[in-house]
Design goal:
With 471 residues, the protein is mostly helical. The chain has 16 helices and no strands.
């Protein structure tokens, strides 16, 4: 599919077409709407696998609520185990969607149009998975409301100087704005699905959420203003959310955590892992639903370049951590980083470096970054590496702290593994439901990048076109 339309150029811009195959507006609507209207056997397989993993999460959480957090591998120095590792991992996954939608929209990058819808959905579902872990790791989730800034009848005002509370505000704000941004972008496409609906139930459901959209000039003007406002609100959140998450570690006094490079390092790592997850999701989708002419090799190549850039930034941050540990002359800091290299968890550190620093360098080769299969495999390695990064930061800094008498080794239990596996089940189940009932590509936005959407476009004389393609 990549070579079929390899040399197609936009007749006005002289650049590679973002939509290949000479398709019309109607063809795009059909390509995106058909997977919703006609169930796909591959979708059922993916959904049932995801649902079984979600069942594992239900069992793990049920046993956790019954027995308490003692079923996890936590011990005295390592009170933050896999739960916090998973929380930071999932918040990071949720970064690429808003970056693609908001930041690239403000920079007028048209290549975002084919990938923004699925990326935004991924953001919403990843943040849901992230919020699961602070909820359950406290041990008594049924009294979680005690920690919220409610009126003071509980006599338990939270500590507003704690970065853990900053997390509550940052992540919940990010989730709310991302959800509204995603929904506003969906409205024109929900109206399209409403008008195509074959059953009264579907017509009612899509019509309810389409908010009476008729595609008038007034509707488009209000829509574009609202979309621009949400993009402006979401852009600083892309930077602030993972910065605040990094403060969970950086404001402490623990060697390995107490470092000023954490905010930009965490933001770069979040975009790195988020774009990798977008590739992990979109490469199978474009193959299963025959969307190669809409999600083109150019889209995959651009995402691969961003992964290469942010991966290099993450590698630079790793090097700077060691330099500052040496340059500071602090023996505790130097020991913490030497311990990462050669201590009990050396295998985790070198897995992280191999996946996050070495693997992305293959993207320099054009054949790699233009191969969907190679990018799919590479994206999985990146996400493995980014999970290990959070593990290394959390566990290696805690297991050997200031007092040798309190040192201990952390080993996860089967319930730690089940909860992690189950969180992926929750994520993929939600994503499968999204793919089944909502347009996975932004129909209206993809149409806007067609050559015939430009007012200066004139159809070739030898190619008969329908009247609606001259809008």
């Amino acid at each position: 599919m990549a070579t079929a339309y390899h040399d197609e150029l936009d007749p006005l811009l002289g650049r590679k077409n973002l939509v290949e195959g000479g398709v019309s507006y109607h063809d795009i609507t059909e390509a995106v709407a058909t997977p919703i209207e006609v169930p796909n056997s591959r979708w059922w397989i993916a959904f049932l696998i995801s649902l079984s993993m979600l069942g594992v999460l239900g069992i793990a959480l049920g046993y956790l609520f019954w027995m308490g957090t003692g079923i996890w591998g936590l011990n005295n120095p390592i009170a933050w185990g896999w739960a916090i590792v998973n929380f930071v991992f999932w918040v990071g996954i949720g970064h690429a969607g808003t970056l693609i939608s908001a930041v690239l929209f403000l920079f007028r990058q048209k290549w975002r149009t084919s990938i923004n819808r699925a990326s935004e959905a991924m953001t919403i579902f990843a943040v849901i998975c992230a919020l699961l872990f602070p909820t359950v790791h406290a041990g008594r989730p049924w009294v979680l409301y005690w920690s919220l800034p409610l009126p003071n009848q509980m006599s338990m005002w939270p500590n507003f100087r704690s970065p853990l509370l900053w997390d509550v505000f940052a992540v919940s704000t990010y989730f709310t704005v991302s959800l509204l941004f995603w929904y506003v972008g969906l409205i024109p496409d929900l109206a399209t699905m409403r008008d195509r609906a074959k059953t009264p139930m579907r017509r009612f459901a899509y019509g309810l959420f389409a908010l009476g959209w008729r595609g008038s000039t007034r509707h488009w003007l209000h829509y574009e203003k609202a979309y621009l406002i949400f993009a402006g609100l979401a852009t600083p959140l892309v930077l602030s959310v993972h910065t605040v998450v990094s403060f969970d570690f950086a404001v402490s006094q623990l060697p390995g955590w107490h470092t000023t490079i954490f905010p930009p390092y965490f933001v770069a790592g979040a975009i790195f892992s988020g774009f990798a997850m977008v590739l992990t999701l979109l490469v199978p989708l474009r193959a299963w639903f025959k969307l190669g002419h809409l999600i083109t090799i150019k889209h995959l190549e651009n995402m691969a370049k961003i992964i290469l850039l942010t991966g290099t930034m993450v590698g630079y941050a790793y090097a700077m951590e060691f330099f500052i540990a040496w340059y500071s002359g602090n023996p505790y800091e130097s020991y913490a980083f030497t311990n990462r290299l050669f201590g009990d968890y050396w295998w985790a550190y070198w897995t992280m470096v191999s996946c996050n620093v070495i693997t992305p360098q293959f993207i320099w080769f054009k054949a790699i970054r233009r191969s969907p299969l190679a990018l799919f495999v590479l994206s999985i390695f990146v996400n493995i590496g980014m999970w290990f990064e959070r593990f290394v930061i959390t566990v290696t800094s805690l297991h050997h702290d200031f007092l040798p008498s309190s040192w201990d080794y952390y080993s996860p239990t089967v319930w730690d593994v089940a909860t992690l596996l189950g969180s992926f089940g929750l994520f993929f189940t939600l994503f499968c439901i999204f793919v089944r009932f909502l347009p996975m590509l932004a129909i209206a936005e993809v149409k806007s990048v067609l050559p015939q959407a430009d007012p200066h476009y004139h159809a070739p004389h030898h190619a008969p076109t329908s009247g609606k393609e001259h809008h």
